[in-house]
């Protein structure tokens, strides 16, 4: 199981290195913000902790706070990235209307 | 059967996340890619819930806590994302990022305190917990310090600029290591765990606090990469392959982005992390020097020169972002364009408060995307340019970077604005840029300084231009 996880880690890292080769400077800020939202994928860990907590209140509480933090990151991150990118994409559309 | 469904959903989610990151690096596909990644995230959560519903089931208590956490985090996140001004984007990313780190930290903490409930016993689990706590805590405190510094809530205390900080940070790192070893040696005691939490949290502060404001974007990008690592470690703790892949992808991609940003600023990652503020060392050791031969001029003269120009290039910088003058700038360029003057914006890769930030700000002010020109495109065009208007930029237009091999800036890519016929530099005063290095451009014969806040100067300029009869249809 552990070795399997290490493989997953290795391949995931290589994929990440490969995905971003050339990024125009325009997109550095949105890319950082978008990748940041993805790192909030710890929602999965938080959910697991809550579901497996049983009737352990401390564990439920820890999991729930963790979920809150992660979702703050995910929802906020995706929305703010979308706000930024919307500004880039709306320009040509408006010009055609003129 | 349920297993098959679980794997299928996870596989699709990973694929979509990878496509999302990939698409985010191209202008045309970026917005869709971001939405794709959001869908992938939703799918991953859905897959996890379906999987548990089909196996162990989810208790009412668990649902209650899930909904509570979701509502609080989701609503706060949505509100923050809507309300925050575009100029404070670096702080916002830092804040979100810190919260991601905190989330990993809390899950690892839960697993360390109740290993039986989360099947997190044994050395492998403990090592994963250690990594998740360590990286998560550094990400959290580091990001919060970065945010506070960018907001101007915090400044670096004097002792933090000295070499003593290295000793303190090394001591904190050692303390974290001692805590980790204690956790491995004695699984029943939580002393080691708390030592690790406190020491690594303080280490995050100690490492981030001495870094100058200009280097902060690099740090945020690096911390973003860390939060990916923390997520991957949390994946090991709870046994989720999806979490490991996604965390590893963000970690690796964040590292590349950090490197790209460092290249744009001609800084090595090592010097950003351990060099402290650049100005603190270089200004004292020469490279500074007094200005002689400065020509300053009035807004009227600038307006007259602009009126006679055929081609004008605007170089926006950090000062423009701070003064929030992008909308006034857009008004000025509208007036110029209506008089038939050709206007372009020269965007240095690190213009603004972080790379790419200036593009976002100008887009917000309705500047057409085609007018934004990257450095390599516009540099050959400066000799054919009549007027360059430098707004709150400094180091990125310093000719020393090309001419003076002894300058600390030497080798940094800069905009060759001195090749234009006339250069106006709008600046608040004669203070140095964030590198603390004298700017030779200011002393050149074709350069005139316009002192004042960018927004005010542009406002006055707009009035003058209109007095000259420009901008009337």
Describe this structure in words.
- The complex is a heterodimer of chains A (98) and B (473).
- By secondary structure, chain A is mainly α.
- In chain A, 81% of the residues lie in helices and 0% in strands.
- In chain A, α2 packs antiparallel against α4 and α3 packs antiparallel against α4.
- The longest helix of chain A is centred in the C-terminal third of the chain and has 41 residues, at 57-97.
- Chain A is flat.
- Chain A starts with a helix and ends with a helix.
- Chain B folds into three domains: 1-80; 87-276, no CATH class; 299-467, 3-Layer(aba) Sandwich (Rossmann fold).
- Chain B has a six-stranded parallel β-sheet with strand order 3-2-1-4-5-6.
- In chain B, α18 (400-403) links the parallel β4 and β5.
- The interface between A and B is large, with 87 and 116 residues.
Summarize the structure.
The complex is a heterodimer of chains A (98) and B (473). Chain A has 98 residues and is mainly α.
Q: Report the portion of residues of chain B in β strands.
A: 5-15%
User: What is the number of helices of chain A?
Assistant: 4
Radius of gyration of chain B: 26 Å
Assembly state of the chains shown: heterodimer
Major sheet: arrangement of strands of chain B: 3-2-1-4-5-6
How helical, in percent, are the residues of chain A? over 70%
Helix content of chain B: 55-70%
Compile the SSE list and pairings.
The complex is a heterodimer of chains A (98) and B (473).
Chain A: H1 2-19, H2 28-38, H3 43-51, H4 57-97
Chain B: H1 2-23, H2 30-54, H3 60-83, H4 89-113, H5 123-151, H6 158-161, H7 164-185, H8 191-208, H9 216-238, H10 241-264, H11 269-274, H12 278-282, H13 299-308, E1 311-316, H14 318-323, H15 326-338, E2 342-347, H16 357-364, E3 372-374, H17 375-378, E4 387-391, H18 400-403, E5 422-427, E6 447-451, H19 454-467
Parallel strand pairs in B: 1-2, 1-4, 2-3, 4-5, 5-6
Helix pairs in contact in B: 1-2, 1-10, 4-5, 4-9, 5-7, 5-8, 5-9, 7-8, 9-10, 13-19, 15-19
């Amino acid at each position: 199981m552990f070795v399997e996880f290490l493989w997953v880690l290795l391949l995931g890292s290589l994929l990440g290195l490969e995905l971003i080769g050339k990024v125009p400077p325009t997109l550095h800020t949105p890319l950082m913000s978008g990748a940041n939202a993805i790192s909030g994928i710890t929602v999965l860990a938080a959910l697991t902790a809550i579901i497996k907590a049983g009737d352990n209140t401390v564990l439920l509480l820890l999991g729930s706070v963790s979920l809150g933090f992660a979702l703050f990151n995910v929802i906020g991150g995706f929305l703010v990235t979308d706000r930024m990118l919307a500004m880039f994409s709306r320009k040509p559309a408006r010009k055609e209307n003129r | 059967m349920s297993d098959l469904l679980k794997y299928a959903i996870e596989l699709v989610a990973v694929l979509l996340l990878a496509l999302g990151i990939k698409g985010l690096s191209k202008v045309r596909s970026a917005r869709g890619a971001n939405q794709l990644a959001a869908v992938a995230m939703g799918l991953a959560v859905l897959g996890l819930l379906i999987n548990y519903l089909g196996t162990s089931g989810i208790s009412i208590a668990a649902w209650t806590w899930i909904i509570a956490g979701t509502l609080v985090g989701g609503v706060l996140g949505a509100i923050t994302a809507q309300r925050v001004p575009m100029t404070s984007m670096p702080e916002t990313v830092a804040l979100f990022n810190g919260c991601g780190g905190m989330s990993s930290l809390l899950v690892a903490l839960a697993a360390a305190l109740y290993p039986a409930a989360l099947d997190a016993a044994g050395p492998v689990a403990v090592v994963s917990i250690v990594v998740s706590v360590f990286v998560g805590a550094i990400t959290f405190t580091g990001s919060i310090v970065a945010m506070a510094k960018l907001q101007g809530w915090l400044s670096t205390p004097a002792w933090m600029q000295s070499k003593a900080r290295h000793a303190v940070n090394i001591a904190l790192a050692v303390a974290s290591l001692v805590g980790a070893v204690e956790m491995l040696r004695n699984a029943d005691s939580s002393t080691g765990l708390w030592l690790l939490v406190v020491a690594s949290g303080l280490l995050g502060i100690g490492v981030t606090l001495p870094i100058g404001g200009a280097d902060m974007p690099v740090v945020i990008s690096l911390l973003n990469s860390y939060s990916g690592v923390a997520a991957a470690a949390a994946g090991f703790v709870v046994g989720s392959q999806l979490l490991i892949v996604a965390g590893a992808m963000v970690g690796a991609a964040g590292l590349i982005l950090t490197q790209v940003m460092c290249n744009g600023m001609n800084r090595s990652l090592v010097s950003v992390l351990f060099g402290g503020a650049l100005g603190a060392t270089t200004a004292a050791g020469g490279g500074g020097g007094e200005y002689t031969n400065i020509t300053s001029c009035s807004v009227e003269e600038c307006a007259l020169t602009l009126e006679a120009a055929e081609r004008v290039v605007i170089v926006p910088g950090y000062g423009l972002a701070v003064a929030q003058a992008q909308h006034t700038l857009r008004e000025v360029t509208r007036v110029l364009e209506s008089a038939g003057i050709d206007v372009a914006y020269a965007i240095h890769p690190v213009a603004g408060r972080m790379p790419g930030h200036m593009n976002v700000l100008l887009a917000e002010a309705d500047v057409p995307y085609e007018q934004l020109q990257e450095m390599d495109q516009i540099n050959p065009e400066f000799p054919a340019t009549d007027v360059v208007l430098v707004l709150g930029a400094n180091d990125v237009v310093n000719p020393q970077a090309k001419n003076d091999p002894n300058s600390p800036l030497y080798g940094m890519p800069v905009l060759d604005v001195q090749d234009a016929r006339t250069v106006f530099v709008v600046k608040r005063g004669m203070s140095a840029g964030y590198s603390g290095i004298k700017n030779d451009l200011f002393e050149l014969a074709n350069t005139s300084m316009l002192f004042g806040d960018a927004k005010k100067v542009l406002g006055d300029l707009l009035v003058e231009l209109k007095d000259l009869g420009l901008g009337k249809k």
